[in-house]
Design goal:
Blueprint (H helix, E strand, L loop, with lengths): L3 E10 L6 E6 L7 E3 L2 E3 L6 H13 L1 E16 L4 E15 L10 E7 L1 H6 L7 H9 L2
Parallel strand pairs: 1-6
Antiparallel strand pairs: 1-4, 2-3, 2-7, 5-6
């Protein structure tokens, strides 16, 4: 089987109430699930640039990456995709939450507490551990 490789970046933005900015997304036929703003590399980008661009495209917010906090890699065997994602803490520099998504995959952008996130259907349930570590600092 051919394995397609995907690389990308994810941004974790925490407000002064210790809430995380989450995105509800799904393709037209998929179940809607929550995730932190995440996206795939474009040619020539750094992981930080990918994170900042994707965050803007998904939320309308201009952010600056702070520290890298996690790497995640693996294989989604049912789709034959290997992936590598770098997670960054991000700070909002400017902008307002708006839907910028031309593909219409984004259904909602909202601040969520860790307790709320634990109850949500998540695109990547394993990310809860990353969020717990960041929020409990």
């Amino acid at each position: 089987m051919n394995v397609f490789s995907s690389q990308g970046a994810a941004g974790i933005c925490i407000n002064d109430k210790n809430e995380v900015l989450m995105v509800l997304q799904a393709a037209p036929e998929e179940e809607k699930k929550w995730t932190v703003p995440t996206g795939t590399f474009e040619e020539g980008e750094t992981f930080q640039a990918c994170c900042e661009r994707e965050f803007y495209e998904v939320t309308g917010l201009i952010v600056r990456t702070d520290e890298k906090i996690h790497n995640k890699s693996g294989v989604i065997s049912e789709y034959g995709i290997s992936y590598y994602v770098e997670y960054f803490l991000v700070e909002i520099e400017s902008g307002e939450i708006t839907f910028q998504d031309s593909d219409e995959f984004i259904h909602e952008v909202a601040w969520k507490s860790l307790e709320e996130i634990k109850m949500l259907p998540l695109s990547y349930p394993e990310d809860i551990h990353i969020l717990e570590q960041v929020l409990e600092k």
